[in-house]
Each structure stands twice: as C-alpha cells, then as structure tokens.
Amino acid sequence: MIDGRHALSISRQAQLAGISRGSVYYLPKPDSVADLALMRRIDALHLEHPFMGARMLRDQLNREGFNVGRKHVGTLMERMGIGALQEAGYQQEAPRA
Fold this sequence. Notes:
Elements: H1 10-17, H2 21-25, H3 33-48, H4 54-63, H5 70-80
C-alpha cells in the first residue's frame, strides 16, 4: 500500500490514500502476559457463568486475586467478542384506540 521506496513521499502517499501519516508508522503493541492470563480466566468464567457481565466478572476476579477494574474487564470482553446473556426486556403493548 504505502512504499517508502516509491517516488512519491510517504506524506503524499498517505494523503492520497486518505489516512494520517502517523498511522503509516503505527505498530500495535502485543498483549501483555498479565492481560493474556486475565483473558483466559475471563473466558473460563464466561463458559461457567454466561450471564455474568463486566461488573460481576470484576468482582469474581478481584476475589480470586486479580486487581482489575470494570472498564478493563469490559474492554477485554469486547476484544474477545463475548458478552453477558440476558433476558429480553418485557415490552407492554400500546393500548389500542
């Protein structure tokens, strides 16, 4: 896509591609060992208790010795593509005229 050896500058190539120049140089950081261990435990808990959301998982993880917050648990759940199962809410029908 963007070639550093091309006749056009990297800035110009990025502009033509419609992306920022900073994103050309961006390299994502790999997951930390602690996050990988945490994700494994979240996955195991989710299989045992699929109804647990980020708050309940956070409480359980804190009881098990993981010092983690709700938002971090929620972020990891999103990255893993999991969410709590919950019943659909009751919707009352509108009165008929």
